[in-house]
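Model it.
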Amino acid sequence: MKIGILTHHYINNFGAFLQAYALQTALQEMYPNDEVQIIDCMNVKHFVINVGGWFRFYKNKETLSGWLQKTRLPITFAKARKKYMALTPTCYNAKDIEKLGLDYIVVGSDEVWNYQETKGNAKVKFGVGLEKEKLVAYAPSVGQTHETDVPEYVKTGILKFKAVSARDQLTEELAEKIRNEEIERVTDPTFLVHIPDEEVPVVTQPYMLFYYCDGLPEVEKQKLIDYAHKNGMAVYGAGECDKRYTDITVNLTPFQWVWMFRNAACVVTGTFHGAVFSMLNHRQFACYLTNPSRIRKVSSLLEEFGLANRRCEGSAIQIIETLNQKIDYDSIEVEFDKRRSESKKFLKNAIG
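Modeled.
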């Protein structure tokens, strides 16, 4: 049997890389005698815009050396994809994918079903043009897209799938309305397998880790940095720049990024996978969310595991209080195990 994974694997983003790698690894473990590959389907517009974003220079936040590190990230990701992903020949459309001779295509995870996304939306991820393969949706997300005014190709596409699951509440509601059936909520693929890490040599002391808290007031962020220093912690960013950080940790491999979360004393983040890797590595963390898509996704995730109180409104005092409220990971790990088992069962039943 030949199984292909169709996702946003080509984006130079740590979460995008790791969810694709994790789903590939999980399927390889579940189907050791079958061929599992990531379909190297390139949305050129999405790819080019994403690469270009790493060359922007933010003079108020970045040093020249930090910016130079950042510009190397697309190459770092390209090397990681080549080394760790089992990629098919490059495909640019459904016709190219059809030539691969796949038996199953698993679409997901990440915002592969965000049909209002002007950069990354591709009809092929709704099964348009795919007729020879059995389609399975594993943990797709529609982002912040609302279910009104749904394009016809989205409706007919989602109906084509042999089995559909969802990563968050909004996606679940949309798919249930279209398919008129109960849709199972499954975990992000990064929950399904143990993901390795690689040490970051410049980090040598306990630290507070930041990961994309867009919109966090600078005054409040400075209070958090001051708090870290007063408590014997360095301050780093996981693949992001700030002149106030202890050292530059921007050009990280995906597994170095994992290491940064796994070894942090505490984490302040504004993203879905920032929250996921804080949880998976049993870190004390707080979420500050301003991006509408992230608000929906991260809030849904936190509520699912009883951690809605980790969401903060931007006050340094509230964030510090949240970080000091210890999470009972013993009980949460029980829920993790349950959700992993259920999610793998969905894949087994869907693929057979």
